[in-house]
Design brief:
Elements lengths: L4 H12 L3 E6 L6 H14 L3 E4 L6 H14 L4 E3 L13 E7 L5 H16 L4 E9 L7 H6 L9 H13 L4 E5 L10 H10 L4 E4 L5 H10 L3 E4 L1 H5 L3 H14 L2
Parallel strand pairs: 1-2, 1-8, 2-3, 3-4, 4-5, 5-6, 6-7, 7-8
Helix pairs in contact: 2-3, 2-10, 6-7, 7-8, 8-10
């Protein structure tokens, strides 16, 4: 297992005040030609990393997608697993997710135990991540698959407490997730409170469909924004987001 090169790179950017952008690739949602176009744009604007995974992804599709990215880009790939089968030694690292917002032991620790023997034999850098689902206006795939209830959109105190619990448990990242295709993103108020409370990097994803929302999320304290669904509709959103994060960094 590789040590902390990817995580240290994230930390260095956070310490500088630089915002980061990740593009989520769901292997089940893009054909090869579309994937290559997305990779090309990501290379042009030099996103920070790819996330690869989804709630329901076959291992074969996952490996093909990771291989395609590796063949066509030098941008790091972090696995974003929906369950214990979603591992690939071709990737650079894995967000080792614990679903802290729900009470399903399979997603808190069960899948992680099942995945560990495979990860142990790999060269993947493991980044322990506290994964927190936030209600996003509709039932998302991750809520349905995990059979857990998200934290209510307005319950910023609970989100803060769960995030801090994740840090106390030794997580290296906190990920606030409204879910793929969410109708509303995590609120700036929640992001601001969580960021003020924890001392580790904060990722925010789900429901980010325009630059105004993204700007509010970055400004509220998100270190990393993840975009996915919007990219599937309009991959040029990647370029727009890259420009936004550059502009925000230049104002520091």
């Amino acid at each position: 297992m590789k040590k902390s090169a990817l995580y240290n790179a994230i930390l260095k950017k956070v310490e500088k005040g630089a915002k980061q952008l990740a593009v989520l690739i769901d292997p089940g949602k893009q054909n090869f030609a579309e994937l290559l176009k997305t990779i090309h744009i990501c290379n042009q604007v030099n996103i920070d990393f790819f996330l690869v995974g989804g709630s329901t992804v076959s291992k074969g599709d996952l490996n093909k997608t990771v291989h395609a990215i590796k063949e066509n880009s030098s941008i790091p790939i972090l696995l974003f697993p929906g369950d214990y089968t979603q591992t690939s030694d071709k990737a650079d690292g894995i967000l080792f997710l614990s679903l802290l917002s729900g009470n399903n032991p399979d997603y808190l620790i069960g899948n992680q135990i099942l995945a560990t023997p495979t990860i142990e034999k790999s060269n993947l850098e493991v980044i322990p991540t506290g994964y927190i689902l936030i209600e996003g206006g509709k039932e998302t795939a991750v809520v349905r698959v995990s059979q857990t209830e998200p934290i209510p959109h307005v319950d910023i105190e609970k989100a803060k407490t769960v995030a801090l619990t994740g840090e106390y448990l030794g997580k290296q990242l906190i990920y606030l997730e409204a879910g793929s295709g969410a109708l509303k993103s995590v609120s700036p108020e929640m992001i601001e409170l969580v960021k003020k409370t924890i001392s580790i990097p904060l990722i925010v994803g789900g429901g980010i469909r325009d630059l105004k929302t993204a700007s509010q999320i970055y400004t509220a304290g998100a270190d990393i924004i993840v975009i996915g669904n919007k990219v599937e509709e309009n991959r040029h959103f990647i370029s727009e987001m890259a420009q936004l994060k550059s502009e925000l960094f230049s104002k520091i």
